From TrEMBL:
UniProt GO MF annotations: electron transfer activity; heme binding; metal ion binding
Presence of the UniProt keyword Cell division in the record: no
Keyword annotations: Electron transport, Heme, Iron, Metal-binding, Repeat, Signal, Transport, WD repeat
The keyword Heme appears for this protein: yes
Signal peptide interval: 1-25
Top-level lineage group: Bacteria
Protein name: Cytochrome c
CDD domains: WD40 (cd00200)
WD repeats: 27-68, 69-99, 110-140, 151-192, 273-314
Domain Cytochrome c: 327-428
Record-linked SUPFAM superfamilies: Cytochrome c, WD40 repeat-like
Gene3D superfamilies: Cytochrome c-like domain (1.10.760.10), YVTN repeat-like/Quinoprotein amine dehydrogenase (2.130.10.10)
Length: 430
C-alpha cells in the first residue's frame, strides 16, 4: 500500500449530512462498524472513526455531524483530541492524520508505522501523541517539533497504549501477552507477562493500570506493574475499554456485544448493558462520569446512563437492519454475509471499508472511481468475472492479489464458490 502523503477533499454536502441526523438519540452516519470514539475535554464534541474509512466530528449538543473527515485508505481504528482544537485519526493504512476543525485536509500526516495503527494516546500536557501498531512497535511523536521515539520490544502486534497521568511513563499492551511500562523520556521498559493476549489498556487518574484481555477479564496493577486484582466481565474477548474522569467506573466492551460497568474500587460488575448483539468496538465516558457512549458493528453510536443501565433517549434499541434480508434463503447470499462489513452491493449505500461491488463483473481490478486502491492492485490486469472471483476465494486474496487490504479467506467448496458468484451476478447488476 502506498504511504505517500495524499490528501483527499472532505465530502461534506447536504446529501451526505441528511442520513447523519440521529434516530432516538443514536448518532447514525457511519457505513461500517464504529471502531473508535473520542470525546473532547469540554464534553461538547465527539470524534468517531469507522471501518468505512471515514471519521466524523459530531456536536453532542445538537446530535449532528459537523464534519466528515476523509483521508485514510483503510479503516479508521483510532481517534483522539489534541490541544488547541486539533484532532488525530489513525488507521489500517499505518498513517496518522492531524486535523483542524472545518479544514477539509489534514494539517499534517505522520508516517513511519509499517502496519495498521490500532490505538492512540495523548499525554496529559498535550505535548505527545503515542500510537500502537500491528508492526509490533509503539511510536511517540512530539506535537511541537515532530520528533519521534520508536519503542521496540513487543514480539506481536501492539493493541493498546496509554500515558500515565503524571507523564512519567507510557504503558503498552499486546497480543504477545505482555504489559510494558516505558519510562519517559527514555529507558528500558518493565515487562509483565500476563495469562492471555491483551487487547486494550487504560490508566485511572490515580495511576492504576487496567488491561482488557482475550479471556474476558480486566486486570489491575499499580503504576509499577504489581498486580492488584482482576474482574471477569465477559465470556468473550474484551475489545474496548474506558475509565470515567473521576476514576470511579470502568466500561468494558466485548466481542459479544455486551458492555460491563465495573466499580473500580470494589472490583465488581455493577451491571451489564445489552447492546445490539454484535461486537462493541469502542466506548467512552462523557465528563459527567454517568453518560457512556458505545460504538457498535451496526455503525451507530449509542448513549447510556452508566449508573442506571438505561439507554438514553430510547426504550428499545432494536437490531440493525439486515442488508441481505431481501435474499433470505439464497445460499450464495449467506456465503456473501461474511463480506457485508466491508462491501455494499449498491452504489446508493454509504461506502464501507472496501469498494462497492455494484457493477462488479466486467470491471478491471482497482479501477472503480473514488476509491483508493494500493499501487500493487493498480498494476494488475485482472478483470472481475465469475471465474476470477472464484479463483480469488479458491487460493486466497494474499496469493491471488498480493498487496490487497482484503482479509485472508478461502472458500474450499467449488459448489459454494459457484453459489457466491451466481449471487453476485444477480445482486450487483441491478
Amino acid at each position: 500500500m502506498s504511504r505517500r502523503l495524499r490528501l483527499a477533499t472532505v465530502l461534506l454536502t447536504a446529501s451526505l449530512l441528511l442520513p447523519l441526523r440521529p434516530t432516538q438519540a443514536q448518532l447514525a452516519g457511519h457505513g461500517g462498524p464504529v471502531r473508535a470514539i473520542a470525546v473532547s475535554v469540554d464534553g461538547k464534541t465527539l470524534l468517531s472513526g469507522s471501518f468505512d474509512t471515514a471519521a466524523i466530528r459530531w456536536s453532542l449538543a445538537t446530535e449532528t455531524a459537523e464534519q466528515v473527515l476523509r483521508f485514510h485508505s483503510g479503516a479508521v481504528n483510532a481517534a483522539a483530541f489534541l490541544g488547541d482544537g486539533r484532532m488525530a485519526t489513525a488507521g489500517a493504512d499505518g498513517q496518522i492524520a492531524i486535523w483542524r476543525p472545518g479544514q477539509p485536509q489534514p494539517d499534517q500526516v505522520v508516517e513511519g508505522h509499517t502496519g495498521p495503527i490500532v490505538a492512540l494516546a495523548v499525554s496529559s500536557d498535550r505535548s505527545k501523541l503515542a500510537s500502537a501498531s500491528w508492526d509490533n512497535t509503539v511510536r511517540i511523536s512530539s506535537l511541537s517539533d515532530g520528533g519521534t521515539r520508536v519503542l521496540h520490544g513487543h514480539s506481536q502486534g501492539v493493541n493498546g497504549v496509554a500515558f500515565a497521568p503524571d507523564g512519567q511513563s507510557l504503558v503498552s499492551v499486546g497480543y504477545d501477552l505482555t504489559v510494558r511500562i516505558w519510562p519517559l523520556p527514555d529507558g528500558s521498559p518493565e515487562t509483565i507477562m500476563m495469562p492471555a493476549p491483551l487487547n486494550v489498556v487504560a490508566i485511572s487518574p490515580d495511576g492504576e493500570i487496567i488491561t482488557g484481555a482475550a479471556d474476558g477479564k480486566l486486570r489491575m496493577m499499580t503504576a509499577g506493574g504489581r498486580q492488584t486484582g482482576e474482574v471477569v466481565v465477559a465470556a468473550k474477548p474484551i475489545v474496548a475499554l474506558a475509565i470515567s474522569q473521576d476514576g470511579v467506573l470502568i466500561a468494558a466492551g466485548a466481542i459479544d456485544g455486551t458492555v460491563a460497568i465495573v466499580d473500580r474500587k470494589a472490583r465488581s460488575v455493577m451491571r451489564t448493558l445489552a447492546g445490539p448483539g454484535a461486537p462493541i468496538w469502542s466506548v467512552a465516558f462523557l465528563p459527567d462520569g454517568a453518560t457512556l457512549l458505545t460504538g457498535g458493528s451496526d455503525g451507530k453510536i449509542r448513549r447510556w446512563n452508566a449508573l442506571t443501565g438505561a439507554a438514553v433517549g430510547s426504550n428499545v434499541l432494536g437490531t440493525p437492519a439486515d442488508p441481505l434480508a431481501a435474499y433470505a434463503g439464497d445460499h450464495g447470499a449467506e456465503i456473501f454475509r461474511a463480506c457485508v462489513a466491508c462491501h455494499t452491493l449498491s452504489e446508493t449505500e454509504v461506502q464501507r471499508a472496501g469498494p462497492t461491488l455494484a457493477g462488479l463483473f466486467g470491471r478491471k481490478i482497482a479501477s472503480l472511481p473514488g476509491y483508493r486502491f494500493s499501487d500493487a492492485l493498480k498494476a494488475m490486469d485482472i478483470v472481475w468475472t465469475p471465474e476470477t472471483v472464484s479463483k480469488l476465494f479458491e487460493i486466497g486474496p494474499n496469493a491471488y492479489t498480493p498487496g490487497t487490504k482484503m482479509p485472508e479467506q478461502h472458500i474450499g467448496s467449488a459448489a459454494d464458490r459457484r453459489a457466491l458468484t451466481d449471487f453476485l451476478a444477480r445482486a450487483t447488476s441491478k
